TrEMBL record, chain A:
It comes from Intrasporangium chromatireducens Q5-1. One of its GO terms (biological process) is fatty acid biosynthetic process. GO terms for molecular function: (3R)-hydroxyacyl-[acyl-carrier-protein] dehydratase activity. Residues 9-137 form the FAS1-like dehydratase domain. Belongs to the UPF0336 family. This is UPF0336 protein N864_17580. InterPro entries: FAS1-like_DH_region, HadA-like, HotDog_dom_sf, UPF0336/Enoyl-CoA_hydratase.
Length: 148, 143
């Protein structure tokens, strides 16, 4: 199998804090066509009960993909990145990511299985504030294509 | 914490919202997302690299399509009310493809988190073929 099956159940240490900024939220919202002013106008966000602008739903992937890299770049895992195809992605939001948040991510390898000569790896990243408030759970399934 | 600004929408099974047409996708669209999202895989901007991987042109990253789906549903029903979103990457989106993003409410149920609507989402090319599918659970008001 093109991945080390022993990695199922493994977790990685929490990442260094990622500072969520209004500028990055604006860039991301513009890149995906999210037109709600709550992503770019602090007054609108405040009127809706938030301290600052809030992120579009898939913004969490910026942080989650940094966490996933720990596994993909782990030589013991044996993953050839050029053979990786993204299969599925899921976000469970406990609250919106907000400009000013300082977020740490903890990566868990929930599943490693083989299907038709390919490997499927499911990872889960728990995103929380530095003080431990859960913000988002991001789950990703990648397919690592087997050799010809 | 209670947020009073944008009330949950009142929706029923079968409700929809005007679809959003994006594109034809340009290299600029893809590069803008690369910068915003931090994905600099050359498959998304280097034509020679894309050709070696078997694609006639660079392809968008799956997270770009996921973001388009998410933006459509959150602009409609309110990002603060979105509880979960899952997407399945079906086929690549290439430079020159236009994509239509839409969906509809398939269920409304009382659950622990409140009144939750499930919205099925899809992005299709002009020939009707699927690029990405998904579903979102969103808090709505009891109707």
């Amino acid at each position: 199998m093109p991945v080390n099956a022993d990695f199922e159940g493994r977790s990685y240490p929490s990442t260094k804090p990622y500072g969520v900024s209004a500028a990055k939220i604006r860039e991301f919202a513009e890149a995906v066509g999210s037109s709600d002013p709550v992503h770019v106008d602090r007054d609108v966000a405040r009127a809706r009960g938030y301290a600052d602008v809030i992120a579009p739903p898939t913004f969490a992937v910026l942080i989650a993909q940094q966490c996933d890299r720990q596994l993909i770049l782990d030589p013991e895992a044996g993953i050839d990145y050029s053979r990786v195809v993204h299969g599925e992605q899921k976000f469970v939001h406990h609250r919106p990511l907000t400009a000013g948040d300082s977020i740490v991510g903890t990566l868990h390898v929930d599943g490693v299985r083989e299907a038709g000569g390919h490997a499927m790896v499911t990872t889960r990243t728990e995103l929380a504030t530095e003080s431990g408030e859960p913000v988002c759970t991001a789950t990703s399934t990648i397919v690592i294509r087997g050799g010809e | 914490m209670t947020h009073s600004g944008r009330a949950p929408a009142a929706v029923a099974v079968g409700d929809t919202h005007p679809a959003r047409v994006i594109g034809p996708i340009t290299q600029t669209d893809i590069v803008r997302f690369a910068g915003a999202g931090g994905d600099f895989n050359p498959l998304h901007h280097d034509p020679e690299f894309a050709a070696r991987a078997g694609f006639p042109r660079p392809i968008a990253m799956g997270q770009f399509q996921a973001g388009l789906l998410a933006g459509w549903v959150s602009d409609w029903l309110g990002v603060e009310h979105l509880r979960s979103l899952e997407v399945r990457f079906v086929a690549p989106l290439m430079i020159g493809d236009a994509v239509t993003v839409g969906g509809e409410v398939v269920s409304v149920e009382q659950r622990e988190a409140g009144q939750l609507a499930t919205v099925e989402l899809r992005a299709t090319k002009d020939d009707g073929s699927l690029v990405v599918t998904g579903r979102a659970d969103v808090v709505v008001s009891a109707s």
